[in-house]
Amino acid sequence: MFLVLQLPFTDIRRFLSVPTNLLLQPEWAISPEPGRHFVRSFGRIARRPRGSKNNWHSSHLFCRVKGLIKFDAKTEYAPSFQSFYSDGVGKSIYEFGFAFAPSQDLFDLQTLLKQTVAIRSRENSITTTRLIRISKHLAHRILDSSTSKRITPQLANSSKASEIFVPQDWWITPGRPLLLIDYDLHENLKVSRYAIPVQSEFLNDSNIKLAHAWLQCENTEIRTWLIGHDDGTDLDTLQRLRFYLSGVHSDMETLQDIVRLLSTQELSYVEGLECSKLMGNYIGTIASILQRKSRNGVKQSDILDVALEVDRMITEDDRTLVLSAVDRLRGINPNFLNNIKNVVGQLSDRQPAISAETILFNIKEINVTNQITSINGDNNVVNQWAQSTVTNSLNNLKDSSSQSEVKPKLEELHNEVEKILPKLPESKQKEVAQDLQTFTSEAISETPRKKWYELSAEGLIEAAQTVGELAEPIIKVVKMILGLISVGH
Predict the structure, then answer these.
(1) The pTM is what?
(2) Fewer beta carbons within 10 Å, N or C terminal of the chain?
(3) 157 in a structural domain
């Protein structure tokens, strides 16, 4: 089983008439040279081993990222690769690939998405955050890495000529994440009842099963596609489908971002300006692709119908603003504008988001289940994974060779956390369990990392504050442990 997390970004700098100091290299639109060209602070350009059947500019090329985002060395969910690529105009994608062996009993999306990662800035300072929250930090890094800090000729005579050029954060907008879960049909993965299967003669003939669901994690909606295949599936067709699903999602996000910026007048269309002409052609191309009957040789009507049916891209009020903004555009081919209207007009919030908090993937039996277990015979429930994580953390603590005086306090903390678990919403139970596990492993480490244990301690305290009278013991022992760690190191 293989999982890819993709983070799309919309970049409007080529559509602005003001100086942006956008670096001209690498020039994705005209195919940068693999091994020679690079993305500053990210890595060198490489060629995809199997090429690409996608019609994105330079989609056969990507940047192999190394050292930008680091995962905890102790995590079970380290990515097999990280990469970045762009269409050279207004859209780019950062992706993480995760491989799961059949011997791995269980993996949990909640743990994967909420694990703590560290991202390095251009000045080599480190920021820690959860993986699901990395997009805004990545947007800043993409902006910084593709911007020249030198003063441009347009600014040479201004009052700020002596200052370093500072780009605007809103020039690059993070979109909603995409999950592609790729599995072998022989594994007999049972798709969650919330997922919507795509019925298609093309998919049946290709030995591919496809299902779609919206997942939600920390108030972030994640479009999820489950792609099942077997030995009889043509690899070329499978690759086309993966690229297609990624392209449709990023196209949707980019179209939404650009038209929203037009509606708020942060971005403007001025007839006669080359940048506005480029923008008009770009959004028109996206709209026409989304309404095309086929793309990259893949019949898309069935898949697109499902994508639009469950899409909650914009609300009714937003849709009104978007359509109004489109009506104000001038100098763009009317057919392109009609395509945008037709796409936007089909978008509606018909489907509720599906909580990812309880979804576990059992790889031995390959069942997607909502696993909860009753505690103490009352009406409160504790998520099975959360309870297991707390228990395993306590067992690891007891089995550790650490002689630190913090050890008994950590055992006390585990006991207190177990008391509050039934009082917490299930979405918080797993978060608290993960924070407890991280906090414990760092506290007994010979070289505890301050930012990691402080972040997990903060999460434990925040959760405790929601349960009233049970909060004080947890807050007290967490602060006591923090004091012991700081004294010992």
Answers:
(1) 0.64
(2) C
(3) no
